[in-house]
């Protein structure tokens, strides 16, 4: 399959889960890809898995210095880009009264500040007519207990995407967001959760999602690639990939 032959892309937060699924779809289609991750173990695992098919770099999206170094690396390694996927994110389940300054700052540093500056530094490398795709979350508008800070950070990212779409449209660069629901990733999106907590999240996700299952990383990847390469008359939108969670009401006994 040579769907993306001649294309170049960066996936920020691409060493596992949904990001890795995007990377694998790109390289299978013939694209040249550079991906990043912060965790050394995940970076090493991605290198072992992908081999020479992609360039894997350790980079902390919460560090503007790392983002600057990444932009220079991308310019030297890939040159001009067809697509940038800003997928890095962190989630902590905390009741409102339990949120600390440290946990608040960490969440916004990755999900909002880091995503914003990654886009700012990489956008000049995107060729006219290219695309940026941000990963947001259905938590943006669901009012889920324990997710106040996470939801706020992802809502900020949604707004960034919409404004950047307006600012980059003169170059023909499209900017969209991808909003996943319950997705069957190794951490279920909550890296610090216990095995029991993840099992409960999985049960709840299957129960409340109208399609009665979790989505797969591959399903999210296909939606992300659609926004990046096929949705050529679409910018400033948030595509929801959640099995109907936020749009469909199904009777409990259905």
Please specify the SSE layout and strand pairing:
Blueprint: E1 8-12, H1 17-28, E2 32-37, H2 40-50, E3 55-58, H3 64-77, E4 81-86, H4 101-122, E5 126-135, H5 148-168, E6 174-180, H6 195-208, H7 217-230, E7 238-241
Parallel strand pairs: 1-2, 1-4, 2-3, 4-5, 5-6, 6-7
Written account of the structure:
The chain has a seven-stranded parallel sheet, sandwiched between helices. The chain starts with 7 loop residues before the first strand and ends in a 13-residue tail after the last strand. Helix 3 packs parallel to helix 4. The mean pLDDT is 93. With 254 residues, the protein is an alpha/beta fold. It contains seven helices and seven strands; from the N terminus they run E-H-E-H-E-H-E-H-E-H-E-H-H-E. The chain is 43% helix and 17% strand. Strand 2 (32-37), helix 2 (40-50) and strand 3 form a beta-alpha-beta unit. It has one domain: Rossmann fold.
Q: Main attributes?
A:
single chain, 254 residues, alpha/beta, Rossmann fold, 7 helices
């Amino acid at each position: 399959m040579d769907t993306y032959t001649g294309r170049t892309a960066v996936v920020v937060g691409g060493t596992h889960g949904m990001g890795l699924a995007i990377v694998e779809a790109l390289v299978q289609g013939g694209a040249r890809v550079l991906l990043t991750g912060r965790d050394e173990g995940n970076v090493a695992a991605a290198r072992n898995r992908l081999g020479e098919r992609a360039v894997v770099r350790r980079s902390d999206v919460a560090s503007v210095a790392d983002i600057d170094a990444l932009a220079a690396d991308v310019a030297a390694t890939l040159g001009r880009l067809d697509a940038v996927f800003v997928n890095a994110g962190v989630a902590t389940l905390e009741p409102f009264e339990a949120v600390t300054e440290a946990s608040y700052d960490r969440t916004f540093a990755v999900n909002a500040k880091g995503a914003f500056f990654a886009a700012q530094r990489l956008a000049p490398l995107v060729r006219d007519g290219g695309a940026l795709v941000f990963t947001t979350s259905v938590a943006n508008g669901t009012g889920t207990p324990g997710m106040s800070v996470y939801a706020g950070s992802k809502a900020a990212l949604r707004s960034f995407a919409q404004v950047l779409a307006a600012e980059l449209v003169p170059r023909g660069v499209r900017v969209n967001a991808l909003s996943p629901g319950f997705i069957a990733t190794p951490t279920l999106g909550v890296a610090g959760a216990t095995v029991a907590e993840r099992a409960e999240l999985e049960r709840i996700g299957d129960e409340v999602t109208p399609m009665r299952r979790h989505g797969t990383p591959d399903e999210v990847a296909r939606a992300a690639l659609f926004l990046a390469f096929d949705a050529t008359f679409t910018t400033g939108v948030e595509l929801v990939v959640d099995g109907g969670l936020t749009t469909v009401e199904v009777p409990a006994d259905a």
